[in-house]
Amino acid sequence: MEDCKVVEEGLEELAYQPQPGEYFNPLNLGRIVVLDVGQRWYGLVLETVIERGVVRRLAEVAEQAGIVIRFIQFSNVEPHDSLAKAIAFLDFSNTSVTPEEALRLVRKQPFVRSAHLIVPNNEGLLFDNYFFPLVVGKKRAVIFRRRVYESLFKGIREKFGTAGEAMLYYQGFAVGCRTCQAYREETGLEDPEALVGLGKAYFRTSGWGIMDIVSLNVEKGEARIRIYESFECETGKDSETSYGHFIRGVLAGFFTSIFQREAKAVETRCIARGDPYCEYTIKT
Length: 284
What we know:
alpha+beta; Alpha-Beta Plaits; Muramoyl-pentapeptide Carboxypeptidase, domain 2; four-stranded antiparallel beta sheet; elongated
């Protein structure tokens, strides 16, 4: 399975394909903002028909009303879906149009099926109090900020020492096995390279790190994997030993499912030790 390409000029041959070790461009998924005094921001949640020109027409409504769209996010859709859900944060600071008037304008649009306002609380906190839960595909998902997963990884190590590192590995192993099996069930894919490609995509889009397949030999049951910006190992900077025991387990479990026989993973390089990336050797 090939990686997607970033196209800027509309011609595939001009597309720049960023290399794993040189690309770091964060995407802020937070649907929460603390407003400063004098800022008049409101939230808008809506359900729209999926058709050509929807985003353009929403932008035109905002432009005519003097509203600045600070944030807009559409829920991912399946190919057969006819409706899309979206949330936007709108800045009314420099317009005389009221949020209620803007809501009426939006509801008049023929492609809008429903629309509602989100009002900041008394402390100036504006957040998405409408959509819940988060899902990836049709499965529930949660977001852990760094302070949470850092406390998790460090807490287990501090409490249980090397036994804690073993716990992280075996937990990761179970996650890797179940994840690969879920890919098979949800997509119908059986080709090992396609499953690995899907794993790369999910690894990156879930924020775990950027996975690079250095080598893969399914027949021999061997792989060499590099992980850039590992979410686990970035919490263990200045460690004297390799730190990625959870991800090591995930890779071992994932490739155990790929190879159809038990695999083990060893971390040979680690950003926690000062290396430019984490590297894992997987063998059956």
